[in-house]
Amino acid sequence: MKYNMLRAILILITVFLILFMTTHVVRADALPLKALLITGQNNHNWQLSHPILKTIIEDTGMFQVDIAITAPEGGDMSTFTPVFTDYSVIILDYTGDPWPDTTRQAFLDYVRGGGGVVVYHAADNAFPDWPEFNKIIGLGGWGDRNEKHGPYVFWRNGELVRDMRPGPGGAHGKQHQYVVTHRVTDHPIANGLPEAWLHEKDELYHHLRGPAENMTLLATAWSAPETGGSGEHEPVLFTIAYGEGRVFHTVLGHAGDDPPPAMRCVGFIVTLQRGAEWAATGKVTQPVPNDFPTAERVRLRPDFKQKEPKTPQEEQACSRASVKGPAPD
């Protein structure tokens, strides 16, 4: 009798533990990933860009985005001490005054230890005199960058080329639509996306330069001389490995006009979302949406959120034909 009772108690305890552990796992999986978006100073319109970035990232249903706004230019930066390790990914929308030394070291430790980073557009203008930051972002522009900061990077004749000739780092021509061409199609961020797609009117950075170490060049765009470009296939999407950390860098998404055309482009939105997931987790589980652009046609999300067009009029409003076809390879 005692044996049967003891056996029954052990069975009940085992069942309880299994149920508890299963419930715990489900709850953990259901929690969103935490992202920290850093902004507050920029040579672009950060007041416009950062709420849009938050909307885009949270629209995946995978992330909870917190915002860290620094002191204004020339202000007291000593209190800017975010706890990076509370987050799966740090999104940089910042170009401005140096961070405190303790914050810089905490950021480096976070990335080296396996933290994720997303470098958005003009964030690659930041901190030209911080060597480790430049290794993290791979390529940067402006801030008196030159050959001492590293090579130019282009795509020529089917391969990545590091060009060490002297010259300034960072420029762009007039804003225009351009075709983004994927050079690596089996990376989780690019997997399933069209090889080429038309991006809405945007700045196209050229002659970025930097260490470019441990870089995977995901996509380029032809920088046409007639638009003020370089006559080179310029990097627009790439990743960097820094220690155990994963970095996704997109030069797309200029925030000027309200609403900014480039940030409404589905190509920008989806690659940013996929890049954030990859930086945070090392994988991408998001399916390719039906409204992704083609090489001939831009697709837009007016409110930056995914919504399938329901009428021909809505379809027309969310789609723009190409002005020009893809550039030569």
Could you describe the 3D structure shown?
With 329 residues, this protein is an alpha/beta fold. The protein has one domain (2-26, 34-321): 3-Layer(aba) Sandwich (Rossmann fold). The protein is 26% helix and 25% strand. It is built from seven helices and 15 strands. The chain has helices at 2-30, 46-58, 101-112, 131-137, 261-264, 266-281, 312-317, and strands at 33-39, 63-69, 89-92, 116-120, 152-156, 159-163, 171-172, 176-182, 196-202, 205-206, 215-223, 232-242, 245-250, 297-299, 319-321. Strands 2-1-3-4-13-12-11-8-9 form a nine-stranded mixed beta sheet, sandwiched between helices. A two-stranded antiparallel sheet has the order 5-6. The chain has a two-stranded antiparallel sheet with strand order 7-10. A hairpin with an 8-residue loop joins strand 11 (215-223) and strand 12. The longest helix has 29 residues, at 2-30. The protein is globular and about 50 Å long. Residues 14-29 have low confidence and may be disordered.
